[in-house]
Design brief:
The complex is a heterodimer of chains A (824) and B (378).
Chain A (H helix, E strand, L loop, with lengths): L1 E3 H4 L11 H8 L5 E8 L7 E12 L6 E7 L7 E6 L9 E5 L4 E2 L3 E2 L3 E3 L2 E3 L2 E2 L16 E2 L9 H4 L4 E7 L10 H12 L21 E3 L5 E10 L9 H9 L7 H13 L4 E4 L7 E5 L5 E3 L5 E3 L5 E5 L2 E5 L3 E2 L12 E8 L1 H10 L5 H7 L6 H17 L2 E10 L8 E4 L2 H6 L5 H10 L3 E3 L3 E5 L10 H12 L19 H15 L3 E2 L5 E2 L1 H6 L24 E2 L4 H13 L5 E8 L21 H10 L5 E8 L1 E3 L8 E2 L2 H14 L5 E4 L5 E11 L2 E9 L1 H7 L6 E6 H4 L18 E10 L4 H12 L3 E10 L8 E10 L8 H19 L2 E2 L2
Parallel strand pairs in A: 14-17, 28-31
Antiparallel strand pairs in A: 1-13, 2-13, 3-4, 3-6, 4-5, 6-11, 6-12, 7-8, 9-10, 15-23, 15-24, 16-23, 17-20, 18-19, 20-21, 21-22, 25-27, 26-27, 29-30, 31-32, 32-38, 33-34, 35-36, 36-37, 37-38, 39-41, 39-42, 40-41
Chain B lengths: L17 H17 L3 H11 L5 H8 L5 H40 L18 H14 L4 E3 L4 E3 H4 L19 E2 L15 E3 L4 H10 L4 E10 L11 E11 L4 H16 L5 E8 L2 E10 L23 E10 L1 H6 L8 E8 H9 L4 H6 L2 H4 L7
Parallel strand pairs in B: 1-5
Antiparallel strand pairs in B: 2-4, 3-4, 5-6, 6-10, 7-8, 8-9, 9-10
The chains are: A alpha+beta (824), B alpha+beta (378).
């Protein structure tokens, strides 16, 4: 809402020295966010005066028609001056605005006497745009004939003004009007309000324009007033144009301007119909399926059965509360007009405006609720202005179609409630006074019975009233006290592990990224994921940011790939990234969630039904790495990132969760079929790691040998904390032995190792694979794995024969399980 | 050890004459002093102090002397040998010290050489900021809540007193999921799935399952249909606080916010509440904090503008208020007995002004150059 300060002063006697900024400082603390205070006319200085055009000499011989005018600007301004002007929309005898030498117009345009078109132009005749009064450059301003010659036009045109642009919150529809903002201003300054809606309105007469309310829930009040014989040549006075303009709207024609002006003033949207274009009486009803209406923006709209319509004998003539129809619109030749001031249900208007994407000044107000009692006053005000400015004559008949009046219900509120809500004690008298200031009637002593005014339909609950008291008493009066919480539980195990996982990966050299969860089919295609894969079963966003990525991720990899590509593209060939976040897995057979009640706690069954409609949303962790892992340098050679780093990243995550992964060979997209590890925990698959498929890398535009891993992090987090048992360490000497075992190339090293462990028994302290050999010195198709075993007893020094026995048992076990042969 | 030489004259043993012993001693001391390094000293020691040295040989002859002469000869030879041994030890210590000093000099390296062999990692500042804030409230005994990002409309809207016609529920603001069994044009008591637009559903979930007193923060990702630009992102992070207990009012909210601002931005700072409107709180307020850079000194001082608060003196942090009793009703908490407050803070915005980040793209894009300087904690 844009509030011109000069207009506001019409309803509140603000001290003359109060500036727009000072007013803003008063309004902000009571809940009005003043976004800007605009100084209109700040770049303009006089002399700017009313001139009387006495004589016009048409100059010829130039590229365009030019006039040399004799303009009387008043004796005090130097009398008659010659002024050159190119505009043609005025005639001798008109009153115009003349900028005299020394004046400065907006844009630092200095006016001086200068010679042009062979004549000295002793000033300038101004258009609205030149004065910064809008975009109208169609011609110069022609003033009403009764303005005094030589008068200060800055004052006359209201050029200097301040406009507060206020972001009115959605609950305060009444403040989308001068009436509402004047009320708040009056409260803020403790002044009296002159309510522009306090007008004498005539009682309805029986024989007015026929109006039928066929849908009382949608429209419960419709005031119709007719004014006839309006002068089609009558124009909107400058002051009204100026106010409409400062309030952010555009002056159009007298009748339209009056309806807009009254809307801005009182907050009641009005509509004017050309009486001669109406066919029979008006009925307010819902649309029939398939019904059509051409609105006054000349768009034909197919209506929805929920749309509320204004209709006459010809059919729909308006989308109620949103936009009028083209067929009954007032036009240049309109002389007889019917004014509509109606009250519509906010939700109905909101839905229609949204459905047809037609937000209008009217719908904005109706959506936020309009004072139902303002209709009669607003209609009267419009009638008065049409009579005064349009020289029309008001019909004595008055139509007020109305269903049962709905007075606001009184609210019972403990007088101490505002104090309790704020945490500060208010005097009972202050509570009552504040509620009265906003327009409530207040009765009772300890428990107050408070009836809100008709313009405050947002006041329905005791807390609403408490807020009014607290905001007017000032939020700055609220003290600061820290509430005491009972003993807390700290972070949950899951939360602690999530943090630990992030730290572990960062410490291991990975950089965390947070990608959007949106993916597209193309990305999954590029990853080579089969159509039947569970990862293809994804939720789809109806209104995605990008049509290429309408789905919600089922894997973290696509986002990581894109971010990796971005980093590589920006000149960083050696990058390791990780992300933890949710993936979204629709549950087969899940249906839409039920809409639950809000007037009570839903039952556990109702809540369970809602939960079952949600997808599974496990937290995953994934990493990608490419380029050099260990760099070369003065210390020697570096090392490229490889599949083993990816597996190790997964192990790092598992270790942070206190879990140990089992690694097996597997083939799984998008990994290299020969370099993919499946990772399991307690026989349950929890993820994959390895080098990516060369074809996938090519498709994704990623460097060769890029590696990745992804784990279901939730699956790694234990239900309850596991306490590691502290080992008793033996002080007896260690016996270290190495064994080299030859196995077929296909045998996984992990199998050989676990066979050794199983065979060695309890004396084995640790085992470590320290070398892998394939080559000439052993049989083709086989490999040699060299393990070092450390043996130790808890209670004695091992004897040579004991060591040999353990070694033989371990080797025998490896031979049995993996056909391993001790390398000679 | 060889036996005494009985073939010599029992009285006249040449090498035991005092002059001979002195000469042998002097030669030994001279050789030891002349040894230039430990190897030379070793040779001198063998020549003058070990078994084959003149003094050692002389010592062996003492047995051949008559008993009356033995004591005197033994004393002289013993003193000479002791002097030689002492000289060897002293010289060895000297030479070892010289050598050690030389070796340590020779072994010196250029410690300014870089060691960037292993890659360096880091955590995203949004993650660490979230953790930090959670710690600040954890210190008060509050709990930290997380939960689903795909939500039912009821959890995100209805339960929070956001009516069916509230504009935030339109596809212009909220991401809707294509939900089987849901038709926007058919009112059959079913809703759509959405991407949560706020973390408040987590508060609803807690209030549904737990009894007051409740003290908690909810953290996580939230989604709105804004296009990515310098200050907006469709996927952003929130932290919301909620307290429900007996006798809770706006003063508790103010105290909590003051505490938060001081913990996160510096001692002595304060918060400010401005009336606003949210459906889920009543009264509602806009939450500002005093500028932690200029502390308000830049207001009205054009010579010292503050970029952090645009010389406003205050920075907008988020929204807050007293939990609307209607919300308590919808989760089955008695509003006559309990009241609460809630606040919500945007983490991207907080990160931006706390760390002087000018463009949202840097937070979103995942460029390692942006993230690495933040390390693993913030």
């Amino acid at each position: 809402m844009r509030v011109p300060l000069s207009w506001l002063r019409e309803y509140v006697d603000l001290p003359a020295e109060v500036s727009g900024r000072e007013l803003a400082e008063k309004l902000i603390p009571i809940g009005f966010e003043v976004e800007t205070v605009h100084s209109s006319g700040a770049g303009l200085s006089g002399p700017l005066v009313v001139g009387h055009v006495l004589e016009i000499e048409e100059l010829t011989g130039f590229k365009k028609p030019i006039r040399f005018c004799q303009v009387d600007v008043g004796a005090e301004n130097g009398g008659v001056r010659g002024i050159v002007c190119g505009a043609r929309n005025f005639k001798a005898g008109d009153k115009v605005v003349a900028a005299l030498p020394g004046a400065v117009l907006p844009g630092d345009f200095k006016i001086a006497a200068r010679k042009t078109y062979d004549h000295v132009s002793d000033g300038m005749i101004c258009s609205a745009r030149e004065l910064g009064l809008g975009d109208d450059h169609s011609g110069i301003i022609v003033l009403p004939s009764d303005v005094p010659v030589g008068a200060d036009a800055i004052e006359l045109l209201g050029i200097r003004d301040e406009v507060l642009d206020i972001a009115v919150t959605t609950d305060r529809g009444y403040c989308l009007s001068m009436r509402g903002m004047a009320r708040e201003t009056a409260i803020a300054y403790g002044l009296t309000l002159r309510d522009p809606a306090l007008l004498d309105t005539p009682a309805p007469t029986g024989n007015g324009f026929p109006v039928t309310l066929a849908d009382p829930t949608g429209c419960d009040r419709f005031v119709a007033r007719a004014v006839r014989g309006i002068d089609p040549l009558a124009t909107t006075p400058l002051w009204m144009q100026r106010r409409i303009q400062l309030a952010g709207m555009r002056p159009i024609s007298l009748i339209v301007d009056i309806t807009n002006y009254v809307m801005l003033e009182i907050g009641q949207p009005l509509h004017g119909y050309d009486l001669h274009r109406l066919t029979g009486g008006i009925t307010v009803r819902r649309a029939a399926p398939g019904e059509k209406l051409t609105t006054l923006d000349d768009v034909e709209r197919t209506l929805h059965p929920e749309d509320l319509l204004i209709t006459d004998g010809s059919g729909p003539i308006g989308l109620a509360g949103v936009m009028g129809g083209a067929s009954t619109e007032v036009h240049e030749g309109t002389v007889d007009v019917l004014i509509e001031a109606a009250h519509f249900a906010p939700a109905t208007i909101a839905r229609t405006a949204r459905r047809h994407k037609l937000p209008s000044e009217a719908s904005r107000r109706f959506e936020r609720a309009v004072d139902p009692n303002a209709a009669a006053a607003a209609a009267q005000r419009a009638v008065d202005l049409l009579v005064l400015l349009g020289h029309g004559e008001a019909d004595p008949e008055v139509t007020v179609a109305s269903t049962q009046p709905h007075p606001p219900a009184p609210i019972a509120i403990d007088a101490e409630l505002p104090g309790r809500v704020a945490g500060v004690a208010y005097e009972r008298a202050a509570v009552v006074r504040r509620l009265q200031e906003v327009g409530c009637s207040v009765e009772g002593t300890d428990v107050l019975s408070v009836t809100p005014p008709t313009w405050r339909p947002d006041l329905t609950d005791p807390n609403d009233l408490a807020e009014e008291v607290i905001r007017l008493e000032g939020y700055d009066r609220i003290p600061s006290r820290l509430p005491t919480a009972p003993r807390g539980r700290g972070l949950t195990l899951r939360q602690r592990l999530h943090r630990r996982v992030g730290r572990s990966l960062a410490d291991a050299g990975y950089v965390e990224v947070l990608n959007y969860p949106f993916v597209g089919k193309a990305e999954l295609d590029a990853m080579g994921i089969p159509e039947t894969d569970a990862r293809r079963s994804a939720l789809t966003v109806v209104n995605p940011i990008s049509d290429e990525q309408p789905q919600l991720r089922t894997t973290l990899l696509p986002g990581l790939f894109a971010t990796l590509r971005r980093n590589v593209g920006r000149g960083f060939p050696d990058v390791a990234l990780f992300e933890t976040g949710l993936v979204y897995q629709p549950r087969p057979g899940a249906s839409a969630p039920p809409r639950l009640p809000v007037d009570r706690r839903p039952t556990d069954e109702e809540l369970a039904a809602l939960e079952s409609a949600l997808p599974d949303q496990p937290r995953h962790v994934a990493a990608v790495l490419t380029g050099t892992w260990e760099r070369s340098g003065w210390w020697g050679e570096g090392r490229a990132a490889n599949w083993a780093d990816a597996v190790e990243a997964a192990r790092t995550v598992a270790a942070a969760c206190g879990a140990e992964l089992t690694v097996d060979q597997e083939q799984y997209e998008p990994w290299h079929p020969g370099r993919c590890a499946v990772l399991s925990l307690d026989e349950r698959i929890v993820g994959y790691a390895g080098e990516l498929h060369p074809k996938v890398l090519e498709q994704l535009g990623l460097p060769p040998r890029t590696c990745a891993m992804e784990l279901n992090l939730d699956a790694l987090v234990p239900e309850t904390e596991v306490h590691v048992r502290g080992p008793r360490v033996s002080g007896f000497p260690v016996a270290a032995i190495d064994v080299a075992l030859v196995v077929s190339r296909e045998v996984p090293a992990a199998d050989v190792e676990s066979a050794l462990v199983a065979g060695a028994g309890p004396l084995l302290e640790s085992v470590r694979l320290f070398d892998v050999y394939e080559g000439d010195r052993i049989e083709a198709g086989s490999k040699s794995l060299a393990f070092s075993l450390r043996l130790r007893a808890a209670d004695r020094t091992l004897k040579a024969d004991e060591v040999a026995a353990v070694r033989d048992a371990a080797v025998a076990s490896a031979a049995r399980h993996t056909d391993a042969v001790l390398r000679g | 050890m060889s036996a005494p030489n009985k073939s010599y004259d029992p009285v006249e043993v040449e090498v035991l004459k005092p002059e001979a012993v002195e000469k042998a001693r002097d030669e030994a001391l001279a050789a030891i002093a002349a040894a230039a390094d430990l190897d030379a000293l070793h040779e001198a020691e063998i020549a003058h102090a070990k078994d084959r040295s003149p003094l050692a040989l002389a010592n062996r002859e003492i047995g051949a002397l008559p008993p009356a002469a033995k004591a005197d000869a033994g004393k002289r030879v013993g003193q000479a040998r002791a002097a030689v041994s002492r000289a060897v030890a002293e010289r060895r210590a000297e030479l070892a010290a010289e050598r050690d000093a030389r070796v340590l000099v020779e072994e010196s390296v250029d410690v300014t050489l870089p060691w960037d062999r292993a890659p360096r990692g880091g955590r995203h500042p949004l993650t660490t900021l979230t953790e930090r804030i959670a710690e600040v409230f954890g210190a008060l005994g509050w709990e930290v809540n997380e939960g689903p990002e795909v939500e039912a409309e009821w959890m995100n809207f209805d339960a929070l007193n956001i009516g069916r016609d509230h504009p935030a529920r339109s596809p212009q603001d909220t991401f809707f999921i294509d939900t089987p069994g849901y038709d926007p044009d058919v009112d059959d008591g079913r809703d759509a799935l959405i991407l949560r637009t706020q973390t408040s559903p987590l508060q609803i979930r807690s209030m549904l399952t737990r009894k007051p007193p409740l003290h908690m923060v909810s953290i996580g990702r939230t989604f709105r249909t804004d296009a990515l630009d310098a200050t907006h992102t469709p996927v952003f992070n929130q932290i919301e606080g909620l307290v429900v207990d007996e006798g809770i009012g706006m003063a508790d909210l103010k105290g909590t916010l003051d505490y938060f601002v001081q913990e996160m931005f510096g001692a002595g700072l304060t918060s400010r509440l401005r009336p606003n409107y949210f459906p889920f709180t009543e009264p509602s307020a806009e939450l500002d904090m005093q500028c932690f850079v200029c502390h308000g000194s830049s207001v009205g001082d054009p010579d010292n503008p503050c970029r952090t608060c645009s010389s406003e003196g205050w920075i907008e942090l988020g929204g807050c208020g007293v939990v609307n009793p209607r919300v308590l009703v919808s989760v089955g908490i008695d509003p006559e007995r309990y009241s609460g407050f809630a606040f919500g803070i945007g983490l991207e915005r907080t990160l931006m002004f706390r760390h002087g980040i000018a463009d949202m793209h840097d937070i979103v894009e995942g460029d390692v150059r942006f993230t690495l300087p933040f390390g693993v904690e913030i």
